[in-house]
């Protein structure tokens, strides 16, 4: 008998592969077995998702430094965890676009109400709204694009406090962003359920969560005071805003040029 994952030869009585650690599966899939596997992966107390989610609150340095230093069995790796968070984000926007429609469209309505009509470019406001809708359709990609800018900011502001390189700062920020996406999913859906009328305001209310929680992570990783970590992260936030704003302006310019070229203006 060979391991179905790494192909190593196994003893017949083996329950786990002694090379890759995979569990030996002998039975065909049935609804009962499928439910048991889902339960083992996501809902049991000792599953990796629960351990990772809880540890990123209680001792984030254990998860993040462990991954950076090569300890990657106990917790979910950074890429799978971030991918899971993006899946949850996609589900959030599916619910907002199809279930809590009034709550979701409030951001578009607020934008149209507060934007004066551009007399020189009459269709500019509509194009801007269309661009927002497109961004919502590709929200996972848009969200992922922001992470390198967060990493740039934290790498520059914490460069004297650790030996983490830029790639390792990417890991830190991927874990932090994934955790924030999971938390904000609960908050945004809760706001929608209780009838909170403004999606844009609800989204902005999560900004203190981003700043507060990520500062807490860097406090734990670098063993500095929370105030020190907060000040540094606010500096990182400022760098992120500058870098991302420049990229966003360039994207808008491309959209406008494309609109002129295709005759939408």
From TrEMBL:
Keywords: Membrane, Transmembrane, Transmembrane helix. The keyword Membrane applies. It holds the Pfam family DUF3667. InterPro entries: DUF3667. The chain crosses the membrane at residues 75-95, 138-158, 170-193, 199-218, 230-261. This is DUF3667 domain-containing protein. It comes from Winogradskyella immobilis. The lineage of its organism: Bacteria, Pseudomonadati, Bacteroidota, Flavobacteriia, Flavobacteriales.
